Amino acid sequence: MRKLKNEELIRKSVAEFKAAEKLPLILILDNIRSLNNIGSVFRTSDAFLVKKIYLCGITACPPHKDIHKTALGATENVHWEYAESALNVVKKLQKEGTSVWAIEQTEAATPLDQFQPNPNQAHAFVLGNEVHGVAQEVVTRCGQALEIPQFGTKHSLNISVATGIIVWDFFTKKKL
Known about the structure:
Elements (H helix, E strand, L loop, with lengths): L13 H6 L3 E8 L4 H13 L2 E7 L8 H7 L8 E4 L2 H10 L3 E5 L6 E2 L11 E6 L7 H7 L2 E3 L11 H15 L3
């Protein structure tokens, strides 16, 4: 077995990516501190044709060299928008009919393996700050949360890892 070279991989051009049908998924980043995490979310969003990313609060925006380092150009492909308030984005999306879920450990969270996306509805996932998670007012407004089951001693995952898990799970359940 031999590794494939980059030129052997079938990848979309930027124009093809922008014209492609997108996964009906929006990611909302709620006060993310790490520029590397932000870049990784862009790269994952590119890989799975995520519709849009909202960068909220203190979350940095492109262009930035540290975001670019992990995004590897995905900031040029993936549609994104800055919003001061994640709460206002959640309200707006809910008003438009999007099913919005906090990715958080809550009293009534749905384990990710039991989550079934509505086939006739767009979805949005809110990912929170590396220390404090999704703001409580945002969790309350979402009214529903997804939890990634964990079986070790730690209580959380890095946001870029959590994003990869939830986006892959959504992609496999809601294939284009």
